[in-house]
Each structure stands twice: as C-alpha cells, then as structure tokens.
## 1
Amino acid sequence: MLSIYQLTSTEFMTEHDYLLAWSAYGVAALGCLLVWFRLTHWMWRYVREPLRVLVAVLLLVPTIVEPSKELFAPAIAITALDLLFEVGNNAWRAVADLFLYGLIAFGLYLLFVSVRWLLLRAWQARQAQTAPGAAEEPSLGEGSSRAAALEADSRYGARAERNLRIEPRL
C-alpha cells in the first residue's frame, strides 16, 4: 500500500504533470478568490479589504517541498497535510512562509491605504476650494419651494416641477 509521501513524491510526477497540477490549482485558487470577493462585497471597506488580502495570501503563497529539486506546493495545503497526516516536517516552513508573505502583503496594503487616504484628502480639499460658496443639494422643503418659484417663471414652463424632483439619499 502506498503512503501519502509516496503519492506526493516526484517519482510519480513528470514536469508536465507538475505544471498541470499548478495550473489547475491556480485556476481553482482564483475561482475561490473570486467567490470570496463576492461574499465580502457588502462589508465596510476597511473590513473587506484586509479580509481579501488575508485570503489571497492563504491561497496564493507557495512553499518549497523538496529543496534539492526545487519543488513547490501551496503553503496552506502543505500545512494541512503535514498536520493532518503527520507525514513530514514541512509544516513549520510553510507557516513561516505564510507569515512572511502575509507581512509583506499587509505592509503593501497599508502603503496603498495611506496613499489612497492622502489622495482622497487632497481631492476633497481641492473640491472645497473650487466651490466655496456652492451649497449642497437642497432639502425636500427647499426643493419644492424652488420648483414653485420656477413654475411661476414663464421661461421654464410647467415641466420645471418634474425636472427638480429631489430623491432621498440611501
């Protein structure tokens, strides 16, 4: 009977099979990531984005299995198999790779968030400078009084009330 180690050994896999397995895993991981994006689209931005980064790190980080042949496998799969079947000692290496790539990914995410925050702040300041006297949208009461004033004006005609309909913000 074959053990788990023999099934995962490269003696049974050619390089073509290795690339085919990585391609299948890549497509499946991207599919899972897409599903995760759809599951988290309703959340608040500052909760949703770190969760997406975390799942991307968990799905896409590789770790080395055999250093002599430079063979890689998904770190989450190596960790799960090593802990579940107690086959090898690659679990700590896989956890270290996950942690290292997670730190890098979250560092880049924090850099992205800070640049986005600075750009948003500059954009809002520029918007405030370009229209300092411009009022915000009229309230419902102000909108109806404006509509009545425009209807009285002969230039706009009877269509003015329909054009100034104010919708509440949700």
## 2
Amino acid sequence: MSGTWLRIAGGAGLAAAAAALSYPWLFRRACLTWGATPAEGARELPGDDLLPSPDIVATRAVTIGAPPSAVWPWLVQMGSGRGGAYTYDWIENLFGLGMHSAGEILPQFQNLKLGDELPLGPGRPRMRVEVFEPERALSLRFEDHNWVWTFALFPADGGTRLLSRNRIATPYASALIRWFGVLVMEPGSLVMERKMLLGIKERAERLAAERVRPDPAAPART
C-alpha cells in the first residue's frame, strides 16, 4: 500500500512540476489576458502612465449586456468595508481583508471622487483614486506606487466591454519571490478576478433589467 501511495505522490509531484515548468511558456499569456482581445491587451488605458515600466501587466475583460451607467455604480462602491469585490469573499477574508460583496447599490458609497483613499483591508495599504472619469475609467494606485489597477468601460454592441488592468512593479523582489508570483499568484489572481468580472456582469445586467421593468404600481396606459 505504501508503494502505491509513493507512486501516486511521485506522479502528482511530476505533474505539478511539469505544469509549473510549462506555465510561463504555454499558459501565462492566456492567464494574464483572460477575456481580452489582443487589441484590448495592447490598448493604452487611462492610468497606464502612472506606472510606465511595470514588471507584470494583466488585462482581463468581460462583455456585459448592460450600458456603462449600469456598470459604474458597482465599481465606485468597491472596497473593504464598502461593497466588497464581488469575488470569493471567503478566500479574501482568510487574509483578513474584510470583504463582503454587496448584491445591491449602496447609496452611501456612490460619492467616490478623485483623490479619495480606499483601504485594501484592515491595517492594509490604501489605494488612491488617481483617474476618475464617470462611466469611462477608474484607476487606483497603491501607496507604494508599485501597483495601478484600472477599470475601463467601452460601449459595445448595445452593452459594455469592461476591462480590468493591473500594472505591477516588483523592484525589490528576489528571484524566488518573482517565480512564486508567476507560478502561484498569477493563476490565483485569474481565479479571483474572473469571479469578480463575472460578478459585476451579473449585477449590472440585473440592474439594467430592473430599470426597464414596468412598475406594477403604475397606472396602465390606455
């Protein structure tokens, strides 16, 4: 029995090593550009100039069957102690981020403006609003200026293309930490960000449908 388990463990180890070795060449691009077209990945977005020489750029996108006006409210209320991040709260809260994804528009968090600072979580670095173009672009820059996160909205086919771009610099990271980021953090970020983008899509489409739904209390037209 022990020999069987050793063979299983050895096979699993070899599979994990093969995946780790092949990821940078075979899967990394797809991981960093999930949902985005090559043109979108190459497109200059507001906020790119805030970190002109990043070590990592991830541009991910989703098509939303709703206008930008139904997407924007979900973006401006994001954050710890606010509307959350619409992803796997239980994973984020394992790291003490205090995220609780809202399922409705929260009026008290709709007054975001240029220069506001948002906490990543209790005791964590803060993000400053550096670009604020309502229904077009929102860029957040972290305190150490080594991470810029931009959301950009583009009308498309009666709906919206939502792009999420992360530009990250790792000037002080060792080679081991850089490899850990590539092999572990990048795939992990795809899992979380994919859920976030799909969460925004679901919420925005629901909001758009509610806005056009007839009010049952309204008098019938004759």
## 3
Amino acid sequence: MPTAKKFAPRASRVEWKAIVCAVALLAAPLALAAQPATVILVRHAEKASQTESDPVLSAEGSQRAKDLATALADAGIGSVITTHLQRTKLTAAGVLEATKLSPIVIQAGGATHAADVAAAVRARPAGEVVLVVGHSNTVTAIIGALGGPKMGNICDSQYSNLYIMQMTSPAPKLIRANFGKADPADPACANTMK
C-alpha cells in the first residue's frame, strides 16, 4: 500500500510578504557593497585651444596627463570613464596604457550626463577603483550624483584637483587632493565644498 506523502502547508500571502521583506532587508547591505570601492575624479588636462570644439591637449596638458598616470600608478584602477571628447581621452591615455584598459565612453553634454556617469560607475564590479575624467562643469555634478557634497563648478584655471570618493555607507566620503603642476593663483576662483 503506497504511503501518503506529507506536504507542508502553503504559506499565506501575509507570510510570503514577510519572507520577501526579510530577504530584501538582508540583501540591502549586499546591494550597497555591490558597487565600486573608490571613485577618482579629475577634470581633463589643459587644452591646446580655447576656440576649437574638440581640442587636443597642450604641451602643459600632456605633461599633466603623464603626471596623472604617475600619481595613479599604484591605485589599482579597474575602469576608466571618459567623455567622447579628445581632451578627456588624452588625459586618461597614460592610465589606460598602463592598465591595458579600454575607456567606457559617456557622451558629454545633456541634462542627464552626471546621472549617466554615476550609473556607469555604479554598474562596475564591487570593490573596483574607477577613474572618471570629466570637465570643469561636470566633475562636481558627478560627485553630487554619486551622493557626495554639493559643490560649485571647477574654475577654468583649475586642472590639478583630484577628488577621491570612498563609496561607503550611508554616504560616500570625499577627499580632495592635487596632482601635477600647481594651478595658478586665481582670486576669482572659490570652489569650496558646501
């Protein structure tokens, strides 16, 4: 005579909702951890022309790009994000060459640029170090989109700023440093963290 199989009673809808909520709460720390550990942001180096729409770097800018590669030689860069413009790609060129990476290119301009870059950063593997090369009017917006402090745009005379974001919970920590040749004194420039 066959034996009767015993089945556990089905969970009610209320129980399933409780199970789903518990799983979501347990997964939340994993979602926070599933993002890059560090994001390094810089503005492109000095450009050769102020009138061209897509200029290359000046001799001073080329040197700054080399200085960036030197400064980040031991940073463990795993991804590099640039815009489609030459000045960002050329600023990242030394880092790309040293790491044998290809850049992730995000179209510059548009109202969603900072959000698009932030989404690309968040899509990178957990624990990765990401370099973002942007523009004077995008770097601080990207910092804000990543959860950092609200800041004014980078002044036209500033190229040496290096922003390091430690992507910690509940809010990222921002460190501001410099690399390469010091920027000239500019009393009109007041780029401070707010």
